[in-house]
Amino acid sequence: MKVLVLDGFTGQSPVHRPLATVLSAHQVEHIKLAQEDIPWCRGCFQCWLITPGECVIGGTGNEVARKYINSDLVVLLSPLVFGGYSAELKRAMDRLIPNMSGLLVRRGGDTRHVRRYSRYPSLVVLGWQQEEDARQKEIFLDLAYRNKLNLMPPSFASAVSSGKDEEQINRQLTAIMVEVGVGR
Amino acid sequence: MKALLLVGSPRLRGRSAFLGSALARHLKAQDVEVLSLNLVEQHKDSWQQVAAALADAELIILSAPIYVDTLPAPATAFLEKFADRFAGKNLAALLNCGYPERYHNDAALAVCQQFARQSGCMWLGGLTVGMGGISLGKGVSRSLNKGMEMAAQAMAQGQPIPVKAADYAARPAVPHGAYAYVLNRNFRRINKKHGKAPLDARPYQHEGTEQ
After folding, report:
1. Distance of CA A120 to the CA centre of its chain
2. Segments making up each domain of chain A, as ranges
3. Is B193 within 8 Å of chain A by CB?
4. Are strands B59-65 and A110-115 parallel, antiparallel or unpaired?
């Protein structure tokens, strides 16, 4: 299984080692976004209108979007920042919109984007917080679920870990990876 | 009272700036002095200026679009960087999304509220609007204008934005399906005229793979 990890941490976290263990049987590319030069999405819409599917900025941001489409599983990894993603992760996520069509479609009473590709990778969203904070966790899992509705993964799982007990985090990750078909 | 309008959009003259200045006009009518800054434009050399503007303001309003279900990266980066400058302020958000439904703003609104909790400022709530797509939703509908006016009156008194104001502001200007129809038509038209590839191009699909 081809796995792409988009890592929004600036350094190491208690999630990193357990995640590597859980994914060890797979072909993993782990991108430390803080070390990459990815300019912010300019909101110019050219990837929807003029060069559909491709961002005009180019560089690593485009490569991340290309790798996203060509993965079987994408893991979004972030510390909880005000209940949301870190700016490092969000910077890369904002550059993923060329992978959707700009056109809108009404689906079950909601409006969504038309798919550009017939197949998207499965999605795992992993958050981590130093200390358990139920309110932040709720915001994070809601945000992850909203991403799931828009990124259209065939399977999806999300979790928020807390603290430094790597063994416990390992058990948690093992369980959620089963939900997206990743065995050990 | 002094207010600071932070525009959190990479588009300098986009809808966030437009809606922000419309709200600023209502605040000025309440004798609130409003300074406006686009936070995406800020850099090392202007950080001191931003810090001074934050220190000076009693009320801070973040006007931002929704990118991939929450605040755009530069807005998040700004909040991370300046969180410790917000203590004791009043904070409100003015959010807009490209989908017709207002609820696509809700995750970002929750993030703003959580930011208020963590940074020690008083959360006055937010106005959320949909239909921010290209060349649509320009202008301010009568109900949005009314919602902004009610919100400005409350904020000028240091009071939370009334639910009624948020409901007025969020009232859709056209039916959801009509918005999607017009947006799609405009997108197809622009692509036909200026596009370098068809709208449904798949540039990242590997050749020879079944996708």
Report:
1. 12
2. 2-179
3. no
4. unpaired
CB atoms B187 and A49 under 8 Å? yes
Closest-CA distance of chain B to residue A117, Å: 7
Tell me which residue of A131, A177, A127, A129 sits closest to A155, measured CA to CA: A177
Question: What six digits make up the tokens of A11?
Answer: 């350094």
How far is C-alpha A181 from the chain's CA centre?
17
Residue B14 near residue B88, CB atoms below 8 Å: no
pLDDT by residue for chain A (184 residues), tens only, comes to 999 999 999 999 999 999 999 999 999 999 999 999 999 999 999 999 999 999 999 999 999 999 999 999 999 999 999 999 999 999 999 999 999 999 999 988 899 999 999 999 999 999 999 999 999 999 999 999 999 999 999 999 999 999 999 999 999 999 999 999 886 4
**Predicted complex: ipTM over 0.90:** yes
Distance CA A112, CA A106 (A): 6
**Region class of A109: left (phi > 0), else alpha (psi between -120 and 50), else beta:** left
**Concatenated DSSP letters for A149-177?**
HHH--SSEEEEEEESS-HHHHHHHHHHHH
List of domains in chain B = 2-194 (3.40.50.360)
For residue A49, which residues of chain B lie inside 8 Å, CB to CB?
134, 187, 190-191, 194-195, 199
CATH topology of domain A2-179: Rossmann fold (3.40.50)
